[in-house]
Amino acid sequence: MYAKYAILRDAKGLKDLEVAQKAEISPSTLSDWKTGRYTPKLDKIQKIARVLGVTIDDLIEESK
After folding, report:
1. Can you list the domains of the chain with their CATH numbers?
2. 0.70 surpassed by pTM
3. How many C-beta atoms surround the C-beta of residue 5 within 10 A?
């Protein structure tokens, strides 16, 4: 799921820190997600999706 997030983030020209700030979540949430230590809870996924301008389904579906 992080890989899909990274694709969507890059398409928007954003960095993790910018996404974290706009979504009002901790930058460590994204860092831990990237390393596989943590998967964001639904409320945080919803905030991230909103920042990226996509649906939750767009964010969590596997890349094709």
Report:
1. 2-60 (1.10.260.40)
2. yes
3. 22
